[in-house]
């Protein structure tokens, strides 16, 4: 309510009371004149006396001042406070208004006739009857004239009550109804009866009866109306007379008791309270079961409402915290005696738990009006888990960012047009640009022209939704250098299927590519000469034979063997031999046609594949190469050496069935050239098979291949005895070929052919695998034995043998120290570097190594310093003649002493007699092996159960 409305209400309030006060004496004296109780002269005399007007004016002034002061506190309250209940002082002031109002009218009603008659000659005592009539008349007029002002004043106070509030009923509807429906009509009837009485100077019985009937009817109707009103108000009165506050559930039971507006209003209130009760229950359920803490505070920041979620959050009970400052719980949101600041959106802050620990929470503060009071609702949620998750996410993002930024692989993204939008720091190592320099540039700026079309197809496939995996391409860096890159990429789409961006990774595989090329080169080329190696040549030969069978184009195969290589290698040393091989390789490479294939087949052997050359041209081509070698001079240390070659040739035509066949033809022809005196060319002729038994090699090679394929080789074991004790724990593993007719072929019969035709590595691997398998079974059976396994002279060249041994030991769990590998001294000396590496690898695994046939290369012991062998097997040629030749004894003694000085054990081979065994014991040789100790057998020999081959063991021990 604004100031203008308050001023208008103030004026109406005063005007209503003032008009009633003025009308009361005027109408009272006026009715006295009409009733002939007063005359005009008396009125003039009374007024002229001045007492009555002065008193009336004084009463009017008093009334105006009094009621202005009366209403002023109410107006001031409404002006200061827009809501809330007024104080008890104002409520008491409001309750005494009827008394003060009607008391003033009573004073005027009593004072007016008294002062009027007192102002006339003779005074009041001269006219007692007139005074009584005027007094009665004035009282009736006062009630009737004051009633409008009273109702106007109550209306004004009622408008103020909307802001003041009511503690109780101040003016009941029954009293209003009694005044209007009962008292006013009765006074009106009484005034009329008084008029007739004064006019007629008497009242007959009929008139009194009429007055009584009217009075009775009026009172009856008024009482019936009051009863009806009481019935209508009964539900409300029941609520008003209850002790304590009524709940919505109680008020919801209000039911109408009448058909008038009050009944309808009562029914509406009942429905309203039922709805309010439902809403209150709903809101209480929401508040009580809410996951968030709900705290309601007043304008001073004191807590009014504290739901269960808030209790669990802060550790306080509602009864404990209600009325306490919000600053206890949320010091950053509210201060002492202040309301919390409104937060239009969720804010994060720190609360305080009952135990004093800080509590990360989120809060939203809103304002609401409740019963004209401003309240603040705080929705508080525990964000401990969220903060922990956010911290973890931030940490994860930081780790991911660190990983991405420090990754050696390129991490990138680009737009659908192919322009870079993000690159990590790896781009500098690949492209030489910083990420900022590359961002926004197009992919095509870095592509190599030869890969542009392939890259474009891959890019279109990505845009079509295909994931790119390990797409290899070549890009240019800042300096124009090429980098081989492997890309992984995928596109990201929106809901409409449009490509948003493309992301992926890339790895610089330039070194890997170079390494692969190097491995490929090494797998196909000889490390010394740079020519193609035997493996690649055989593959190409197979392809050539297949092409010839299809199209009939003839080719020639030349097998070239140097005639003087062994002499130069033995006399000038291995370095000179290697230099010779390199020069010969260059000589051949510079004189073959482009497209022809030259290879180092092994040792001092070369193979040459000449395309589109038939039976007529092949001999002439071979002769040209022979003459080329014949004219060549090898120079070393200022000396020159003639180097010639023997060339075996074979033509590849439709009659050739396989690469092995034509290779054997060329090999056989080369051997025929060597047999014929060297430095010559010989072409394969089927009649050569009958010469010098050369065809035997091919037969043996076929049989070796068959034995390998059908797993038909046989292992036998020869015991190795301890010379001092006679105990046998070691066995040498030997291989035999068992033919279909039962004949047993020793290694000397088939090993040369296996070596010549490239089967020796397969034989080595077969022997090693079977020996390890057999030793594993024996050890599982509890037999404490060890094996010594022979390897061929070509074992150093087999790059798969060592990995196979490692894999076999890992699979079986066999202790590597139970295995000893043997290789001949001459094989080790021939390739000392490879032997040292090979033996070192076996020693690293944990295996032992023995040098077989020691003494056959007795020219120098110096190489023993470089070979980390464990045992030396003294060559049997020295051991066999010990009993008869003192020189052999001296040789054996010397070798044994040198071996022991180097910390190596010795094994004497070919121990064929007891006399030899005694000498070995005398010289301090560690172990003995030979037919006298035990012959090779398929099963292990238990010496204790055999005939006394070692009958003097007891004597030897002594």
Write the layout of secondary structure elements.
Elements: H1 3-34, H2 40-49, H3 51-80, H4 88-95, H5 97-118, H6 128-164, H7 173-200, H8 205-240, H9 248-251, H10 261-289, E1 293-297, E2 303-306, H11 308-314, H12 318-321, E3 347-352, E4 358-370, E5 373-382, H13 384-406, E6 410-414, E7 420-423, H14 426-431, H15 435-438, H16 449-463, E8 468-476, E9 482-493, E10 499-508, H17 510-524, H18 534-551, E11 555-562, H19 565-572, H20 574-591, E12 597-602, E13 605-610, H21 618-630, E14 633-636, E15 639-642, E16 645-652, H22 659-675, E17 681-683, H23 695-710, E18 713-722, E19 728-738, E20 744-745, H24 747-756, H25 760-780, E21 786-790, H26 801-812, E22 819-824, H27 825-830, H28 832-845, E23 848-854, E24 871-874, H29 876-880, H30 886-901, E25 905-908, H31 914-923, E26 927-928, H32 953-957
Parallel strand pairs: 16-17, 19-21, 21-22, 22-23, 23-24, 24-25, 25-26
Antiparallel strand pairs: 1-2, 1-5, 3-4, 4-5, 6-7, 6-10, 8-9, 9-10, 11-13, 11-16, 12-13, 14-15, 18-19, 18-26, 19-20
């Amino acid at each position: 309510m604004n100031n203008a409305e308050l001023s208008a209400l103030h004026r109406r309030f005063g005007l209503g009371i003032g008009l009633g006060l003025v009308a009361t004496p005027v109408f009272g004296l006026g009715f006295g004149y009409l009733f002939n109780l007063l005359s005009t002269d008396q009125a003039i005399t009374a007024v002229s006396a001045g007492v009555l007007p002065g008193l009336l004016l004084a009463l009017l002034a008093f009334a105006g001042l009094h009621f202005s002061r009366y209403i002023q506190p109410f107006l001031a309250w409404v002006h200061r406070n827009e809501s809330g209940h007024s104080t008890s002082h104002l409520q008491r002031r409001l309750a005494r208004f009827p008394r003060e109002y009607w008391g003033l009218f009573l004073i005027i009603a009593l004072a007016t006739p008294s002062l009027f008659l007192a102002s006339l000659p003779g005074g009041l005592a001269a006219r007692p009857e007139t005074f009584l009539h005027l007094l009665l008349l004035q009282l009736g007029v006062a009630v009737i004239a004051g009633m409008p002002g009273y109702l106007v004043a109550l209306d004004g106070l009622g408008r103020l009550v909307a802001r003041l509030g009511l503690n109780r009923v101040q003016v009941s509807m029954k009293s209003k109804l009694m005044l209007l429906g009962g008292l006013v009509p009765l006074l009106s009837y009484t005034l009329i009866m008084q008029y007739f009485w004064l006019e007629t100077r008497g009242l007959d019985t009929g008139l009194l009866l009429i007055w009584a009937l009217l009075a009775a009817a009026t009172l009856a109707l008024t009482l019936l109306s009051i009863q009806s009103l009481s019935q209508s108000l009964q539900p409300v009165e029941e609520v008003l007379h209850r002790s304590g506050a009524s709940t919505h559930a109680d008020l919801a039971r209000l039911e109408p008791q009448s058909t008038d507006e009050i009944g309808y209003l009562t029914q509406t209130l009942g429905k309203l309270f039922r709805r309010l009760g439902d809403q209150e229950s709903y809101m209480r359920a929401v508040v009580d079961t809410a996951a968030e803490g709900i705290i309601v505070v007043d304008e001073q920041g004191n807590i009014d409402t504290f739901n269960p979620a808030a209790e669990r959050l802060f550790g306080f009970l509602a009864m404990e915290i209600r009325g306490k400052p919000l600053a206890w719980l949320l010091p950053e949101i509210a201060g002492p005696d202040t309301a919390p600041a409104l937060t239009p959106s969720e804010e994060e802050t720190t609360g305080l738990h009952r135990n004093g620990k800080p509590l990360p929470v989120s809060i939203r503060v809103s304002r609401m009006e409740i019963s004209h009071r401003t309240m603040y609702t705080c929705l508080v949620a525990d964000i401990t888990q969220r903060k922990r998750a956010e911290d973890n996410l931030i940490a994860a993002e930081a780790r991911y960012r660190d990983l991405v930024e420090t990754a050696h692989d390129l991490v990138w993204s680009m737009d659908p047009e192919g322009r870079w939008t993000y690159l990590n720091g790896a781009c500098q190592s690949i492209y030489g640009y910083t990420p900022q320099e590359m961002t926004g540039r197009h992919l095509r700026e870095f592509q190599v022209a030869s890969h542009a079309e392939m890259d474009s197809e891959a890019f279109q496939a990505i845009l079509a939704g295909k994931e790119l995996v390990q797409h290899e391409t070549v890009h240019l860096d800042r300096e124009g250098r090429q980098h081989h890159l492997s890309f992984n990429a995928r596109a990201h789409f929106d809901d409409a299927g449009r490509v948003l961006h493309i992301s992926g990774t890339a790895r610089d595989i330039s070194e890997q590519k170079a390494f692969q090329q190097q491995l490929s080169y090494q797998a196909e080329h000889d490390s010394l000469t740079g020519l193609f190696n035997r493996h690649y040549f055989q593959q190409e030969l197979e392809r050539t034979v297949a092409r010839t069978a299809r199209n009939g184009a003839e080719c020639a195969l030349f097998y070239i063997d140097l005639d003087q290589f062994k002499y130069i290698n033995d006399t000038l040393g291995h370095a000179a031999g290697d230099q010779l091989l390199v020069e010969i390789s260059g000589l051949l490479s510079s004189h073959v046609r482009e497209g022809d294939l030259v290879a180092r087949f092994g040792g001092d052997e070369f193979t040459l594949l000449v395309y589109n050359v038939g039976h007529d041209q092949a001999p002439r081509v071979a002769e040209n190469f022979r003459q080329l070698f014949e004219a060549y001079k090898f120079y070393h240390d200022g000396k020159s050496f003639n180097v010639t070659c023997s060339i075996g040739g074979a033509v590849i035509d439709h009659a050739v069935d396989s690469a092995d066949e034509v290779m054997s033809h060329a090999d056989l022809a080369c051997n025929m050239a060597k047999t014929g005196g060297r430095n010559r060319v010989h072409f394969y002729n089927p009649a050569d098979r009958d010469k010098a038994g050369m065809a035997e090699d091919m037969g043996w090679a076929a049989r070796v291949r068959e034995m390998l394929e059908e797993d038909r080789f046989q292992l036998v074991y020869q015991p190795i005895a301890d010379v001092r004790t006679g105990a046998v724990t070691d066995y040498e593993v030997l291989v035999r070929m068992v033919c279909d007719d039962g004949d047993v072929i020793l290694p000397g019969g088939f090993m040369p052919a296996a070596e010549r035709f490239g089967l020796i590595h397969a034989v080595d691997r077969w022997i090693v695998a079977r020996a390890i398998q057999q030793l594993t079974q024996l050890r599982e059976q509890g037999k404490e034995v060890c094996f010594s396994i022979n390897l061929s002279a070509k074992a150093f060249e087999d790059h798969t043998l060592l990995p196979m041994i490692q894999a076999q030991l890992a699979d079986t769990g066999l202790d590597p120290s139970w295995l000893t590998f043997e290789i001949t001294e001459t094989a080790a000396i021939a390739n000392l570097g490879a032997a040292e590496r090979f033996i070192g690898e076996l020693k690293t695994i944990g295996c032992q190594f023995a040098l077989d046939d020691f003494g056959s290369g007795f020219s120098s012991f110096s190489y023993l310093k470089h070979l980390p062998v464990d045992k030396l097997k003294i060559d049997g040629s020295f051991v066999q003649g010990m009993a008869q030749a003192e020189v052999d004894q001296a040789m054996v003694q010397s070798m044994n002493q040198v071996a022991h000085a180097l910390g190596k054990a010795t094994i004497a081979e070919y121990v064929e007699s007891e006399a030899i065994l005694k000498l070995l014991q005398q010289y301090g040789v560690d172990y003995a092996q030979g037919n006298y100790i035990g012959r090779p057998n398929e099963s292990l020999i238990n010496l204790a159960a055999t005939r006394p081959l070692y009958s003097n063991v007891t004597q030897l021990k002594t």
